[in-house]
TrEMBL record:
The chain crosses the membrane at residues 13-33. It comes from Cyprinus carpio carpio. InterPro entries: CysQ/Inositol_MonoPase (IPR050725), Inositol_monophosphatase-like (IPR000760), Inositol_monophosphatase_CS (IPR020550). This is inositol-phosphate phosphatase. It is found in: Membrane. Belongs to the inositol monophosphatase superfamily. GO terms for biological process: phosphatidylinositol phosphate biosynthetic process. One of its GO terms (molecular function) is inositol monophosphate phosphatase activity. GO terms for cellular component: Golgi apparatus; membrane. Pathway: Polyol metabolism; myo-inositol biosynthesis; myo-inositol from D-glucose 6-phosphate: step 2/2. Keywords: Hydrolase, Magnesium, Membrane, Metal-binding, Transmembrane, Transmembrane helix. Its EC number is 3.1.3.25.
Length: 341
């Protein structure tokens, strides 16, 4: 006998087609839902995770900085002159640290804005963060602090105090990461590559560093830049007297740490940090966030808050203090104009 054929009525065909469409719809809806969830996840960032990532980026960059200095393979170049006429150095340490730090953050959170001091042309690193959060962060910071990626700007300094780095003045050298939300510094990380110490602060949440027990603002010790000083010495003396102790030091990150409880014997200590010339935001954002997390302040010399969105530089000078009457300090400063410094 010949095999019997299967005949479908028009109703059977319609039902079959509807079932097929239903299966396809549910499969597609599942994929679409998964993609939407993934899209939403990428568009928001948990700030606790971003703090841990920032710490890892600073440490990885710091390893490159230390390795290249110890191997003496700096490949030192000049990027030109600063506004004060000092030579602005560039080394392989700056570039390699930039690649580690920039691409670790960007590969993990592609949608956030990352501003770095350096702009290496080489291919990016393939590294992606492991999402391991250090115990010290888990113990102090709760999760669930989601922020839309478009509100975040990350400022990284792959090697702060490059001039001192070339002179092998290791204590001044740091790597830094700062997270700003809507222009306000929220998370700051300062890492010392040659000691392995990492300071961090999360505004409103906590920090792993503390202020000193007391500060002298009547006759303060003032820490200033050793390589971008401008007319800072006379400026400080007018404000606080000719006998004011002035401490020249390299690196904005180092100078902020000088305002806190010292972490090692080589760390200078000061009561106030003053800068009177143009300074880049990747130099100061991390320190600003750490000070804010401890109740301190970093402002322009006129007492204005610094906005960490938009342009890369701060033209208003710098006054940083902690556990003091910051407004009273601002009033003691002489009239200041950026173009006269």
């Amino acid at each position: 006998m010949a095999p019997m054929g299967i005949r479908l009525s028009p109703l059977d065909i319609a039902v079959f087609c509807l079932l097929g469409v239903g299966v396809i719809y549910h499969l597609y809806a599942g994929v679409l839902s998964s993609r939407i969830a993934s899209f939403r996840q990428k568009r928001t960032v948990d700030l606790r995770e971003l703090l841990a990532l920032s710490m890892e980026a600073a440490v990885q960059g710091g390893r490159e900085v230390k390795r290249i200095r110890e191997d003496n393979t700096l490949e030192e170049k000049s990027k030109g002159k600063t506004k004060e006429g000092a030579s602005e150095k560039l080394t392989l340490g700056d570039l390699n640290s930039h690649r580690k730090m920039f691409y670790l953050i960007k590969n993990t959170y592609p949608n956030i804005q990352v501003n770095s001091e350096e702009h290496a042309n080489a291919e990016g690193e393939a590294t992606v963060w492991t999402r391991i959060i250090p115990e010290e962060i888990l113990a102090k910071i709760s999760g669930g602090k989601e922020v839309p990626a478009e509100r975040i700007t990350v400022w990284i300094d792959p090697l702060d105090a490059t001039q001192e780095y070339t002179e092998n003045l290791q204590k001044y050298v740091t790597t830094m990461v700062c997270v700003a939300v809507d222009g306000d510094p929220v998370i700051g990380v300062i890492h010392k590559p040659f000691t392995g110490y990492t300071a961090w602060g999360f505004v409103g949440e906590g920090s792993n560093v503390v202020p000193r027990a007391s500060y002298n603002t009547n006759f303060p010790k003032v820490i200033v830049s050793r390589s971008h000083s401008g007319k800072v010495k006379s400026f400080v003396q007018v404000a606080f007297g000719n006998n004011t102790e002035i401490i020249p030091a390299g690196g904005a990150g180092y100078k902020v740490l000088a305002l806190l409880d010292p972490t090692d014997e080589e760390q200078d200590t000061a009561d106030i940090y003053i800068h009177v010339t143009y300074i880049k935001k990747w130099d100061i954002c991390a320190g600003d966030a750490i000070l804010r997390s401890l109740g301190g302040q970093m402002t322009t010399l006129k007492g204005e808050q610094i906005d960490y969105s938009g342009t890369e530089g701060n033209k208003g000078g710098l006054l940083a203090s902690i556990k003091t009457d910051h407004e009273a300090l601002v009033k003691r400063l002489p009239p200041w104009e950026e173009n006269k410094q």
